[in-house]
Amino acid sequence: MLSERKDLMDEAMATPVDRPAEQASPAATKAPHPASARISPAALREFGQSALLLLLSLSGGLVLWHVASENAWDFGVNFRYVPTPSEVLDATISNISDSAFFVHIGVSIRRVLLSFLIASGLGILTGIAMGRSRIARAMIAPYIEILRPIPAVAWIPLAILMWPTEESSIIFITFLGAFFPIVLNTVHGVQQTPDVLVRAAQSLGASRLAIFQHVVFPAALPSISAGLAIGMGVAWFSLLAGEIISGQYGIGYFTWDAYSMVRTPDIVLGMLVIGFLGTLSTAAVRALTAPLLKWQKRTR
Amino acid sequence: MLDVLKNHKTPTPDGSKGKGAVSIENVSITFGSGAEAHQAVQTTSLEIKPGEFVCILGPSGCGKSTLLNAVAGYVRPSTGKVSVDGTEVEKPGPDRGMVFQQYSLLPWKTVYENVAFGPRMAGQSWTEAGSVANTFLGMVGLKKFGNRYPAELSGGMQQRVGIARALANYPSVLLMDEPFGALDAQTRLMMQESLLEIWRKFGTTVIFVTHDVDEAVFLADRVLIMSAAPGHIIEDLPITLPRPRSSDMAALPEYVQARQHCLDVIRAESRRAFAEQNI
Question: What class does CATH assign to B2-95+173-182+194-278?
């Protein structure tokens, strides 16, 4: 199950937190947290260097992009129709003065949040059931194995036929994307609970329920929160697939509509917004789960 | 660290004095079945008096931990029974406190919450459980570290918290499975002295599993030597060293004799086991 989960992560996002196996060892928790480190001159210098490199890298990329599209480079990959950075900037300025643009963003965020919440609830519950009960695992695992590799796009026709509204079918597709990584990470987290901790709790008089609450669930939390972060990333992929093919709103629709109407700067703007929202929401998931994992960070 | 412990005025938690008689009757333990069957403990009978400090000494893999796990209730004996104060052991419980070799504090709970966990599970309020936790943390000299997480403590400190946590349930028996095995030699010696100090104040029965002859002789009232697997008790040696004990007693003739005797028994046993393997 672990190796399959890895495949999925590769498809999804290779985030630094999606290494639950390492998180179990105290050594791994010594990973540097530059933001929380005490500010020493050396750290400050390092930070300055990183910032400088980031700036150099980004401006270099922008210049290259500008030159490539300005001169309509064509070496198999064709830059003729790629808008220049300044055209994208102009498109951005004109779009942010238009409320319709924010409606697209708002609709997408709402869909992702709703789908992600449902996927988190069902995913964590399913994962716990599978991790704790052999019967549940035997009965649910085949469905997970068969359905998981099906990409969100492949679900679109059936989803449209099955669900009463377009909105519900898009939410269903987005939900599916987030659901599987959350389930698999939860199962993994629950199963890796160290046996000695369970025994210790038994010897302290803990009931089965108390062992779950105080041992199994907290032990699974690092893995669950990694699953949530990955699930959030995959939710955005799936949402975009859904929005491109059906719907009249959403940032995916905005991007695809720009393509149909040959507003190339808007295509790039749409893509950048998607990237930004994806990063932002994954960071938000991490920030929200961080307080639950503070015991990991306070190690020496 | 030890000074803290020695000077600490213990509220003498002697609730478990007079309890803690452990009786192991014809216990054998076999894992698996059929061709895969592996006997870990051969039929063993043993009586341990309340308040006694018993060390089970034996080579790795001899089944000494398995026997201890049967007393803890993690393993059911295949034959015979284990009882504590006349009640048959069926499952793990707070009357038998357990200290493990690996660090087994809950990493997501603070030191204080870890020690208060047992009393909380027994239905005490946070206030009651908290004061018990403070008592026992004081007893092991770690009151100041209550708000730390286990990973922030050294190995020796974590094991002391483990001892405090086990004692916070006022167990009649304290079961210790090579608790100092992972510590460096100096810390181990300090932990041994501090364990004896705690035991003197607390008076609970202790069953202590180790493969270290010096540790066994230094700590125990009685050293039980186990054979190579499948394990059974091949020697029951009373240790007559005076108490309270200190590390300078290693030079006393009683100590030297007891130590030599243990080594002789172990050597004879490993020769026998080795010869048997070569048949």
Answer: alpha beta
Angle subtended at Cα B214 by Cα B211 and Cα B216, rounded to the nearest 5 degrees:
60
Q: How far is CA B195 from the centre of its chain?
A: 10
| Cβ contacts of A215 on chain B, cutoff 8 Å | 106
Task: Count CB atoms within 10 A of the CB of residue B166.
Answer: 28
Find out whether A263 and A178 touch, Cβ atoms under 8 Å. Answer: no
Name A75's bridge partners: A77
Q: Which residues of A touch B165 (CB under 8 A)?
A: 204
Query: Per-residue b/e over A202-239, b at no fewer than 16 CB within 10 Å?
Result: bbbbbeeebbbebbbbbbbbbbbbbbbbbbbbbbbbbb
Chosen for mutation from A23, A202, A203 (greatest number of chain B CBs closer than 10 Å) is A203
Q: What is the pLDDT along chain A (300 residues), one digit of tens a residue?
A: 444 444 443 433 333 333 333 333 444 344 444 445 567 888 889 999 999 999 999 999 999 999 999 998 888 888 888 999 999 999 999 999 999 999 999 999 999 999 999 999 999 999 999 999 999 999 999 999 999 999 888 998 899 899 999 899 999 999 999 999 999 999 999 999 999 999 999 999 999 999 999 999 999 999 999 999 999 999 998 998 889 877 789 999 999 999 999 899 999 999 999 999 999 999 999 999 998 888 886 554
Q: Calculate ∠ Cα B159-B88-B43, nearest 5°.
A: 85
Residue pointed to by tokens 């028996």:
B173
Three-class DSSP category at B37: coil
What is the distance between the alpha carbons of residues A235 and A173, in angstroms, rounded to a whole number?
8
Please indicate whether, in this complex, the C-beta atoms of B121 and A204 are within 8 angstroms of each other: yes
The Cα–Cα gap between B32 and B273 comes to 23
Q: Which residue has the tokens 């130590």?
A: B259
Q: Is-contact B113 A204, C-beta < 8 A?
A: no
Domain boundaries, chain B: 2-95+173-182+194-278, 106-170
What is the C-alpha R_g of chain B?
Answer: 19
Amino acid at A223: S
Give the CA distances from residue A124 to residues A224, B45, B206, in Å, rounded to whole numbers and listed in that order.
Answer: 8, 48, 42
Chain A residues whose beta carbon lies within 8 Å of the beta carbon of residue B151: 26, 29, 295-296, 298-300
Spatial separation of the C-alpha atoms in residues A77 and A229, rounded to whole Å: 33
Q: What is the DSSP string of chain A?
A: -HHHHHHHHHHS---TT--HHHHTSGGGGG---TTTS---HHHHHHHHHHHHHHHHHHHHHHHHHHHHHHTT-EESEE-TTSPPHHHHHHHHHHHHT-HHHHHHHHHHHHHHHHHHHHHHHHHHHHHHHHHH-HHHHHHHHHHHHHHTTS-HHHHHHHHHHHSSSHHHHHHHHHHHHHHHHHHHHHHHHHHT--HHHHHHHHHTT--HHHHIIIIIHHHHHHHHHHHHHHHHHHHHHHHHHHHHHS-S-SHHHHHHHHHHTT-HHHHHHHHHHHHHHHHHHHHHHHHHHGGGGHHHHT--
Instruction: Judge whether A300 is closer than 8 Å to chain B, CB to CB.
Output: yes
**Side chain identity, residue A279:** T
Per CATH, the number for A83-297 is 1.10.3720.10
